[in-house]
Amino acid sequence: MKLLILNGVNLNLTGTREKGVYGQQTLEEINRELQTYAEEHGYSVDCVQSNLEGELCNYIHNAQGKYDGIVLNAGAYTHYSVAIRDAIAAVSVPVVEVHMSNVYAREEFRHKSVLTEVCRGEILGFGKNSYLLAMESFRL
Ligand code: DQA
């Protein structure tokens, strides 16, 4: 099994931005942990991040036929990107939406995701472990 961990806008600042919400670890450190975990459990993950909406769509398009699933934290694009939603709907590779924070305990504009309907499922509120739980969901 091969998964793509796809992080969107501002996630590159994890570890320095809003540490109380997103934690102290950098995205690189988190990705390394996810990679190690996957290897220990007999599968592999590639980790990529972009702040650009179109580039995130490209990653989703190109995942077709290459990956068994995508773990997607689209960041703020989650709440309004019809382009990313359409990209997910356009491919048959399953996508699990993740958020580190519990978006429902935060501002109201974060309560709406335009992506969830076209995703296999959604995992949120467990910090970096949201990624891990999403990865594991592909093994069930
Ligand atoms: C986030 C939640 C989003 O609302 C926010 O814009 C982010 C990160 C999360 O991981 O909790 O950038 O996706």
Identify the notable features of this structure and list them briefly.
140 residues, alpha/beta, 5-stranded parallel β-sheet, globular, binds 1,3,4-trihydroxy-5-OXO-cyclohexanecarboxylic acid, 5 helices, Rossmann fold
Topology:
Layout: E1 2-7, H1 19-22, H2 27-40, E2 44-49, H3 53-63, E3 69-73, H4 82-90, E4 95-99, E5 121-124, H5 129-137
Parallel strand pairs: 1-2, 1-3, 3-4, 4-5
Helix pairs in contact: 3-4
The structure holds 1,3,4-trihydroxy-5-OXO-cyclohexanecarboxylic acid.
Describe the structure.
This protein is of the alpha/beta class and 140 residues long. It has a single domain (2-137), classed as 3-Layer(aba) Sandwich (Rossmann fold). The chain is built from five helices and five strands, in the order βααβαβαββα. It has helices spanning 19-22, 27-40, 53-63, 82-90, 129-137, and strands at 2-7, 44-49, 69-73, 95-99, 121-124. Strands 2-1-3-4-5 form a five-stranded parallel beta sheet, sandwiched between helices. Helix 3 (53-63) runs parallel beside helix 4. The chain is globular and about 35 Å long. It starts with a strand and ends with a helix. The mean pLDDT is 98. Bound molecules: 1,3,4-trihydroxy-5-OXO-cyclohexanecarboxylic acid. Residues 10, 73, 75-76, 78, 99-101, 103, 110 line the site of 1,3,4-trihydroxy-5-OXO-cyclohexanecarboxylic acid.
